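Dear Dr. H.,

I hope your travels went smoothly. While you were away I took the liberty of generating a structure for the chain from your last submission, since the lab meeting agenda had it listed for discussion. I wanted you to have the full record in hand beforehand rather than looking at slides cold. The sequence, exactly as received, is reproduced here:
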Amino acid sequence: MSDLTRVSVAGAAPYDVTIGPGARWLLPDLLTGSRQVLLVHPQSLAALAGAVDKDLRAVGLDVVMAAVPDGEAAKSLSVAGELWSLLGRRAFTRTDVVVGLGGGATTDLAGFVAACWLRGVPVVQVPTSLLGMVDAAIGGKTGVDTAEGKNLVGAFHPPTAVVCDLDSLATLPRAELVSGLAEVVKAGLVADTGMLDLLADADAATDPAGPVVRELVERSVRVKADIVGRDLREAGPREILNYGHTLGHAVEKVESYRWRHGEAVSVGLVYAAELAHAAGRLDAAGVARHRELLGGLGLPTVYDGSRWPELLAAMRVDKKARGAALRFVVLDGLGRPGRLEDPDEAMLELAFERIAR
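The corresponding predicted structure, in token form, is as follows:
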């Protein structure tokens, strides 16, 4: 497996993100020293989980399979509670390990379960979606959703390793691949603007077996690794990774999580661009670049204008808010992220009118 790329994530507990076709074959070696493994996976990946189970048992590991609902339905306290009960019944200790195999929702859940059990046991993340590879599985943000909002209950708990097997992308539904590209666009907009030219070629950027997708994954991982390695707990630089997420999370909540994360973030990115333009911080060409890139990839750039009151209410309980003040990551130019503190409601509404349909 020489065709693998390793990206190191610095910090108090550094770890590697391994990227490449067939990377999941490294998993048994990464679990050396463990006795038991809780393999958390969505029901739709039962066949892949079965293959991983067989690989791990072949090296003497005691595998406990844990199928969870697909998508955001997995990220609930009730599902987490069932997994904690399972860990208790199997007497999991701090030398045992949780493995999250699946998309971003699965890795969020697996990380949160590991963070809380015995106040922290190891977790190895094996993301199978583009979204999971470039964002959710890296950086140690874990959590579940509540009726009040997305990811409001969670913990920072870095994994001991992340394995991005690019072969998984070949079986990913096109809509899921495109959804994940929203986070790739975000990484390009806030940090690595060279990625934007690659993303402008929609055919190449949506070919899961092509070299462009691999380059986009590797560059997105490097962006995130650099930022979270310097700021695990979102005290400073890591906040820029929330670009587009304030409205994006609100859209997810208003839509009862029926929208894919990347679709909601795409709308949120255009809204943040319009908000920066309304504040005199981003020029019209920058806003247009957002729309062209996201729309060209097949992602939404507008939203139902009648839902503004609900969206505003949802944003006010966003975890990035401070008291009654909303805070947004905005751009002062491509690759130049900043913050917009407590914009007045008229500006918020004006920006929304520009994305309303």
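Two observations you may find useful: The longest strand covers residues 149-156. The chain has a mean pLDDT of 96.

With kind regards,
E. W.
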